[in-house]
Amino acid sequence: MKRLAPLIFLALLACGPLAPRERGPRENSPPAETPRRPGGGENSGGGRIGPAPTYPGVRTIGAPIAGTITIGAIADCQYADQPDNGQRLYRRAPQKLKEAVAELNAARPAFTVHLGDFTDTGWESFDVVAPIYASLAAPAHHVLGNHEFSVPDARKPQVPARLGIPQRYRDFAQNGWRFVLLDGNDVSLHAHAAGSAAQADARAFRDRVAPGAGDSGGALGLVQLTWLDVVLAEADAAGEFAVVMCHFPVLPAGGVTLWNAAEVVSVLRAHPSVKLYLAGHDHAGSYVEAHGIHFLTLQGMLDTTDNAWATLTLAPQEIAVDGRGRVPDRKLALR
Fold it and tell me: Among 270, 242, 221, 264, which residue's Cα sits nearest to residue 55?
């Protein structure tokens, strides 16, 4: 099994260049050019959206080195200058984000991550909430959601750079923890231009693996799945504990999960380093433990007159979730 990760890595190189690796959170991510996706193609996962490789066994983990670190997490701010729609309180989002940023700056986490759907629609929406989030004192990360791509087709390739995202999926290590940020829009209908080959491929993939799923979901392409396996194998070998973040949940099973959630779970469960999968998208939130991994979906900031965000203190024996507003507190024991 020790030989598997290098072989996968070599196979991945044959598919195309890997996303550059971050080794620590960036204080201020520079405005990036539109990231080149591994394997080429129009903003896609190389067009390789076939079945995931098989992961036959659990990897051996090195001597654990994880320390204690606190991070901030927000899901689905989802601002737009438009009237409320039921529970979706679009114009209240900036004030709630300001309140969260002020409290996070007082709490001083190592970094904060927004778990996708930072805006609801419109390119101009970024101009309102991006400066608020940028006022965080600690590094501020983004995971791409589906709604950020509710912009004109010509703007879709510019979305990652507008959010200061250096690569659409990436990882970094800090204090013995590996943080892996995925792109659940890798294979999707919304992140590609209407009528493009990438959109047509995504539709065919969706209809094959998740028939009946809606148009707002997505999947990880084969290149990204293989990259994820390589990164987690490195974390196993280093004795790191891993937190995997994506806009879309994978468990509990349901209509709002990644289209290829089962393949993603098969990768995660093969790696003893994985302790937490953190997601947004399902505004009601959810939690389940499976395969020794905690699958936590944060409640959306959009759908509340109060607020919704959390700090998570990651320690070798336990993850403590300190929720704000409608996000509940939790104590998640690690195995």
Answer: 270
- Alpha-carbon distance 264 to 187, whole Å? 13
CA 36 to chain CA centroid, Å, is: 18
Q: Which CATH number goes with the domain that contains 308? A: 3.60.21.10
Domain tally, the chain: 1
CB 144 within 8 A of CB 160: yes
Domain containing residue 130: 4-20+32-49+64-333
Phi-psi region of 122 (alpha: psi -120 to 50; beta: other; left: phi over 0): left
Cα atoms in the Cβ-side hemisphere of radius 13 Å centred on 145: 29
Using the CB atoms, write b or e for 26-64: b if 16+ within 10 Å: eeebeeeeebebbbebbbbbbbbbeebbebeeebebeee
Verdict on whether the full-model pTM lies above 0.90: no
The one-character DSSP state at 312 is E
pLDDT per position as a tens digit, 245-286: 999 999 998 879 999 999 999 999 999 999 999 999 999 999
Strand partners, 35: none
Q: What is the dihedral angle through the alpha carbons of 280, 286, 287, 290, rounded to the nearest 10 degrees? A: -80
Pull the structure tokens for residue 85.
Answer: 């729609």
